[in-house]
Design a protein that fits this description.
alpha/beta, 8 strands, 2 domains, globular, about 300 residues, 6-stranded mixed sheet, two-stranded antiparallel ribbon
Length: about 300
């Protein structure tokens, strides 16, 4: 009986800093006492278009929302905080593209607003509520990595309200290297995308609020419990199984009609194009669709 071939996986390159887009690193750097300085800097920069004044102090809020009734779906936020004026800020890190993501975020904001009323807001004189989504995938075909969304007056093209505003940061669209990052926004987005790829703190990242980020995320300094949690998080760096499942499902749905008419081959080509359009690497697309890599490369 012939021996089965053993598949050897290329070992992962050792890294010094934990990926900032993992759940453990994101919440430990930004979402716990001690992370306020960097989180305030992020909020002031990302929301400067709508903030009436710079934020100087924040208070972390409970991240679990049970809803108004026993049958309500429980929601767990990544980071939720408020400023001294009781304006609320919800920050979410999303690694995998999920179906109906927009509805999910609207639900999150609605829960936050409903709980404002529950905390004693009267006559609907509600504070502002802001959402920041940091996405480790491409949301659309836009070339912009930073997108702002709000309520606009269609006639005047002006913001109709500054009390509800959303910001999306799409990490795959950010292409600057460390030396090209001069403003805070570029630097923090660079770190979200590349922290696990660098071995030293870049020379131009001297700001004090970055001190804790590099200290907390240094893997060699972590205890056993944190290392176990981080290891569980990091399995998505290469596999990204949730994202792959979603991309395959969407691509297959789009290709079904074409596959029936033009054959399986044409359906696979459409699937491959759809995945490439969403930012997946050609090698991964070839593995999923079983198409030759050269043929996948030609579809770009």
């Amino acid at each position: 009986m012939p021996k089965s071939k053993q598949v050897r996986h290329k070992p992962l390159k050792p890294i010094r800093f934990a990926p900032l887009f993992t759940d453990w690193a994101f919440k430990n750097v930004f979402g716990k006492p001690g992370g306020e300085l960097l989180l305030i800097a992020l909020l002031n920069d990302f929301l400067k278009r709508v903030l009436p004044a710079p934020i100087t102090k924040i208070k972390y809020l409970p991240i679990e929302s049970l809803g108004a009734t026993p049958k309500s779906k429980k929601v767990i936020f990544d980071i939720l905080c408020e400023d001294k004026e009781k304006n609320v800020y919800l920050i979410e890190m999303q690694n995998a593209k999920l179906k109906n993501a927009g509805n999910r975020w609207r639900l999150y904001i609605s829960r936050v607003q409903a709980e404002m009323v529950g905390r004693g807001v009267k006559s609907y004189a509600m504070p502002a509520s802001f959402f920041i989504g940091i996405l480790n995938y491409k949301r659309d075909d836009s070339k912009f990595f930073f997108t702002e969304e709000g309520w606009f007056n269609l006639q005047t093209k002006q913001l109709a309200s500054k009390k509800e505003f959303r910001v999306f940061v799409e990490l795959p669209k950010f292409e600057k290297v460390a030396a090209e990052c001069h403003c805070f926004r570029d630097k923090i987005v660079f770190l979200f995308k590349n922290l696990h790829k660098i071995s030293e703190r870049p020379a131009n990242f001297k700001e004090k609020f970055f001190d804790r980020l590099f200290e907390v995320s240094e893997i060699a300094k972590l205890g056993v419990r944190d290392l176990k949690i981080l290891r569980s998080n990091m399995r998505y760096i290469d596999e990204r199984q949730l994202a792959i499942d979603c991309a395959v499902e969407e691509a297959v749905e789009e290709a079904t009609e074409a596959a029936l008419v033009q054959g399986i081959k044409q359906g696979l080509l459409r699937s491959a194009k759809s995945m490439l359009k969403r930012g997946f690497e050609p090698t991964l697309v070839a593995n999923i669709t079983k198409l030759p890599k050269k043929q996948v490369m030609a579809l770009r």
